[in-house]
Specification:
The structure holds 2 protein chains of 2 kinds. Chain A is α/β, with parallel strands linked by helices. Chain A contains 11 helices and 15 strands. Chain A is elongated and about 85 Å long. Chain B is an all-alpha fold. Chain B has one domain (about 1-255). In chain B, about 80% of the residues lie in helices and about 0% in strands. Chain B has 12 helices and no strands. Chain B has helices spanning about 1-15, 20-50, 60-85, 85-95, 100, 110-140, 145-170, 175-190, 195-200, 205-210, 220, 225-255. In chain B, helix 3 runs antiparallel to helix 8. The chains are: A alpha/beta, B mainly alpha. The interface between A and B is medium-sized, with 28 and 24 residues. The structure holds adenosine-5'-triphosphate and magnesium ion (MG).
Chain lengths: ~325, ~260
């Protein structure tokens, strides 16, 4: 549905988007992920024919954005970073104006306005001036104008920015319900959003494509060798970490064990286990049977967040620590 | 064509929803009213003096008043036109709504035409304010209305040309004030550059005089429709709109 080849956009000397290529199948929801200034908005602007690419090609629904922009524009709904609202217009009037721009007429237009007002929960502000709406409502009206003509391709630049949690969920549900008939690209910084809504992720950083894969693949890549943190204490007030280390290393499925923290009475180890092997039971049993106390065992679950941070080269990887067994002493 | 109408309607609404239209209408009504009143005073005085001296009263007072009144319209226009055109594109660029227009299946030309037509409509409403005063002349005398109509046509064409220039300048910046100030300067320049032709008959001066909007008004104010002058104004409109189209296009390549 969308094919991007070596797409490049240069502002003066620096490239905002640098030779990006990807492909999106019909009916997919694709998350466009990247830190601030990565080039998400720029890429979306090129896909919507707002900006011409410096180099490379992009085709949307089979039409080249440079050669046949009119055909592309007919088939896309676009929610820009800031919703394009005319402050002096009423919400209903605005939707009818945008609907007209997109070629809707008469009864069909009326019916679509009713439909999107209901879907985007803006029916109660139909007769309010857009300039007087709160940020969240503006965002909703922005979303409503993007889907008013039921476009094949939806391009949403941070669709949930500024919404309250309830509305975020509703918007995600709305987006998910549109998938299938519609191809959707949405940009976001919020990783759980991608995990929950999207099937495919495109990660870019500093204008370069870092990764493109399905959400499932990226997650399992992240879960690869999931380390487990174990805190072990000696019964009689003293503990020799080397002995513990040797014991744990014998448990099957354990790849590597590293002493993280050493104290006279207890020590913490990081245990790397083999992929797809659940060794925590054996691990706990081995420790308890050797006569030590198992104070704590938790996995430092690697989330998409971590993959994202690794891929985009930021440091400060703060693993989401998830308590599994705490204070299970015998 | 439907899209042009859509844009036109939106622009007209935004003139009339915001106080812009009303402020301009009141200003114009006051100005033209004042011009008219002072002209009338002057002529009353003049005719009284003429009668006292026992001379024949110069025949066509109403026409003379109308001609003088119309003489003030272009000058008023110099101040009013920037106020009408400055927001056309600058505002859309500032608020980001330009992104909606340029990603909708509507041609640049339709947007430009709709906006420019709205501006000319707005200006025509203001011209009507002067017609109110001319209407008074018809109440008390029977001036020849055909030359008046030709004069109106001239005023309209001249303003339409300057409005097209203003529309173009509005695409150059995000800032309405800058757009307005630049439009004022540009229009003033096009207006006064003809004055050199009055004292100077070298080629460059004649060219400048030809390019100026003010030198082409004369035939219209005399009530004779000179196609050369009409063509000049139509060309000015086309040049303005063409520049607007080029600017919108290059806007995307630049930004
Ligand atoms: N009009 C412009 N002129 C010059 N540089 C620009 C322009 N617009 C964007 N850039 C640059 O292009 C790069 C990418 O910007 P872009 O807006 O695409 O980032 P983004 O991924 O959308 O970021 P964010 O998450 O903050 O929205 C940035 O470095 C930005 O400074
Ligand atoms: Mg952005």
């Amino acid at each position: 549905m969308i094919t991007v080849k070596e797409l490049t956009k240069r502002y003066a000397r620096n490239a905002a988007v640098d030779h990006i290529s990807f492909e999106i199948q019909k009916g997919q929801i694709v998350g466009f992920l990247g830190p601030n200034g990565a080039g998400k908005t720029t890429t979306m602007r090129m896909l919507t024919c707002f900006l011409p690419p410096t180099a490379g090609t992009a085709t949307v629904a089979g039409f080249d954005v440079l050669e046949e922009p009119m055909e592309v524009k007919k088939r896309i709904g676009y929610l820009p970073e800031t919703p394009p609202l005319y402050p002096e217009m009423m919400t209903g009037e605005y939707l009818s104006f945008v609907g007209g721009l997109k070629g809707l007429r008469g009864a069909e237009l009326k019916q679509r306005i009713d439909y999107v007002s209901e879907r985007c929960a803006i029916a109660d502000v139909r007769n309010k001036q857009l300039g007087k709406l709160s940020k969240g409502y503006r965002q909703r009206v922005g979303l409503a104008q993007a889907i008013i003509h039921d476009p094949e391709v939806l391009i949403l630049d941070e669709p949930t920015a500024g919404l309250d949690p309830k509305q975020i969920n509703e918007t995600r549900d709305l987006i998910k319900s549109l998938a299938g008939d519609h191809t959707i690209i949405l940009s976001t910084h919020i990783l759980p959003e991608v995990e929950q809504t999207c099937q495919q992720v495109i990660i870019i950083n500093k204008g370069k494509l870092v990764a493109t894969d399905t959400v499932d693949n990226l997650q399992s890549r992240a879960r690869g060798a999931e380390p487990v943190l174990v805190e072990v204490a000696g019964r009689n007030g003293s503990l020799d970490p080397n002995v513990v280390q040797a014991r744990i290393a014998k448990v099957s499925g354990v790849n590597r064990i590293v002493l993280k923290q050493k104290q006279p009475t207890h020590s913490t180890f990081e245990v790397e286990t083999q992929k797809d092997q659940f060794v925590r039971g054996d691990l706990a049993r081995a420790i308890v049977e050797a006569g030590w106390d198992l104070n704590e065992m938790r996995s430092s679950a690697v989330s998409l967040e971590e993959v994202f941070l690794q891929l985009t080269g930021s440091q400060e990887v703060a693993p989401k620590e998830e308590a599994v067994v705490t204070g299970a002493s015998k | 064509m439907r899209n042009v109408w859509l844009i036109w309607r939106k622009e007209m609404r935004s003139y009339f929803v915001s106080p812009v239209a009303y402020v301009l209408i009141v200003i114009c009504a006051l100005f033209f009213g004042f011009f008219f009143w002072s002209l009338l005073q002057a002529y009353l005085q003049f005719s009284m003096e003429a009668q006292m001296r026992g001379e024949m009263f110069p025949m066509n007072m109403p026409e003379e008043i109308a001609r003088r009144l119309f003489g003030n319209v272009p000058v008023t226009g110099l101040f009013i036109i920037p106020l009408i055109t400055m927001r056309l594109f600058a505002e859309e660029k500032r608020t980001g709504t330009i992104e909606l227009l340029t990603t909708s299946p509507i041609r640049d030309g339709e947007v430009i035409l709709g906006k420019w037509l709205a501006a000319t409509t707005m200006y025509s409403c203001l011209l009507l304010m002067s017609a109110l005063n001319i209407g008074f002349l018809f109440l008390y005398s029977r001036p020849d209305w055909k030359p008046l109509l030709v004069t109106y046509l001239g005023l309209f064409l001249q303003a339409a040309g300057l409005l097209a220039i203003g529309t173009f300048i509005s695409t150059l910046t995000k800032n309405q004030i800058i757009a307005g100030a630049l439009t004022f300067c540009a229009n003033l320049l096009i207006f006064v550059c003809g004055w050199v032709g009055e004292y100077n008959s070298e080629t460059w001066a004649r060219v400048l005089a030809y390019l100026s909007v003010s030198t082409h008004m004369e035939s219209f104010t005399r009530g004779t429709l000179d196609s050369k002058d009409a063509i000049y104004y139509l060309t000015l409109i086309l040049v303005g709109l063409f520049l607007t189209a080029r600017s919108l296009e290059s806007l995307r390549w630049r930004s």
